[in-house]
Amino acid sequence: MKFYLCILALSLEACFAAPGLDPAFDDHWQLWKTWHGKEYHEKEEGWRRMIWEKNLKMIELHNLDHSLGKHSYTLGMNQFGDMTNEEFSQVMNGFRFTETERKYTGSLFLEPNFSEAPKSVDWREKGYVTPVKTQAHCGSCWAFSATGSLEGQHFRKTGKLVSLSEQNLMDCSWPEGNEGCHGGDTIAAFQYLKRNGGIDSEDSYPYIAKDRLECLYKPEYKAANETGFVRIPSGHEKALMKAVAAVGPISVSIDAHHHNFRFYKSGIFYEPTCSTWNLTHAVLAVGYGFEGAEKDNKKYWIVKNSWNKTWGDNGYILMAKDRNNHCGIATRASYPLV
Ligand SMILES: *[C@@H]1O[C@H](CO)[C@@H](O)[C@H](O)[C@H]1NC(C)=O
Ligand SMILES: *[C@@H]1O[C@H](CO)[C@@H](O)[C@H](O)[C@H]1NC(C)=O
Ligand SMILES: *[C@@H]1O[C@H](CO)[C@@H](O)[C@H](O)[C@H]1NC(C)=O
């Protein structure tokens, strides 16, 4: 097969760049490229295809294992199929603890006196959640996580769902220690919002997926206020559950560095190697629930990501709940006060 490819190849370079590509995938590769709007230089295409085939095989094997009962979730090919793990983690995992960690001024969540929190909650059904957004090739997850919970709290207060500006947070919260596309911290974003008194709308301050050193915030386009923020006691999923039930969508950070997270498609994400403290990605918990009977290992958090609707389950992931703070979802949870 390799030999055949080499004879057909127009140049030696292309031949060396693309050893062992499986011609059975030719049509799928073309379709995938078209679907996701990918274009490559001639020299690049061979090795991109190689990475893509490797990921495709990994996905197929995982799904075969899933059909044999070995996993609780499936994987699917998506727009990230042509990236290596290293490339992917550089670009997509933008969560960093900042200096503000030590001097933040938020208050601690006081558990409401529910006799019992509801067994399932989904704030999407109540109008608290904007459509899934796309951070693109920029480590700005922290900004999307922050706008997500503020959009929810703003809706709770005013009854109006307004999409808020991540670029506003990225351009203007450098003093709080955030670094635009190179990572940041949701809590530092809340601190900026408190200092600034509010945030512009997405429409008036659009996302460009690039670092900008100049802050273009305009008070006349302010679309939401923030007066402070609240932290959920670290590591307590029960407290997070009560917060989600009582307050609305909550900003959370997770360990997303496992390559299966990148290709998640459906089911309840559970990865034994997931860490509770090595948080790499910021997202939004918009609810929780359970599958089948209410058994311990069938509970999940409903999590909104910012990797477009083409990722995961229409942009969402179900993450294992009440399994020892899986992937650190309750390690660093917070929400803004409006
Ligand atoms: C819950 O109830 C306890 C005991 O009645 C009380 O001490 C506590 O302040 C209450 N918590 C909140 C958040 O109201
Ligand atoms: C922000 O708060 C001020 C004072 O309470 C209020 O007048 C204004 O309408 C609020 N702005 C938004 C966008 O909610
Ligand atoms: C923590 O996550 C980073 C980023 O994905 C990864 O490179 C590193 O190996 C992880 N560290 C540990 C100790 O797992």
Description of the molecule:
The structure is a single chain. The protein is α+β, with helices and mostly antiparallel strands and 338 residues long. The chain contains eleven helices and twelve strands. The chain has helices spanning 2-8, 12-17, 26-35, 42-67, 85-92, 100-103, 141-158, 166-172, 186-196, 237-247, 259-262, and strands at residues 73-75, 107-108, 121-122, 198-200, 222-225, 228-231, 250-254, 264-269, 281-290, 299-304, 316-320, 334-337. The strands form three sheets. Strands 1, 3, 7, 8, 9, 10 and 11 form a seven-stranded mixed β-sheet that branches. Helix 7 (141-158) packs across helix 8 (166-172) and helix 7 crosses helix 9 (186-196). The longest helix has 26 residues, at 42-67. The radius of gyration is 21 Å and the shape is globular. The termini are far apart. The site of one 2-acetamido-2-deoxy-beta-D-glucopyranose has 3 residues, from loops.
Strand content: 15-25%
- Determine the fraction of residues in helical runs and give it as a percent range: 25-40%
Small-molecule binders here are: 2-acetamido-2-deoxy-beta-D-glucopyranose
Looking at the structure, what is the overall shape?
globular
Radius of gyration: 21 Å
* Rounded mean pLDDT score: 90
Class from secondary-structure proportions: alpha+beta
How many strand elements? 12
* Low-confidence regions: 1-17
**What is the end-to-end distance?**
63 Å
Q: What is the H/E order?
A: HHHHEHHEEHHHEEEHEHEEEEE
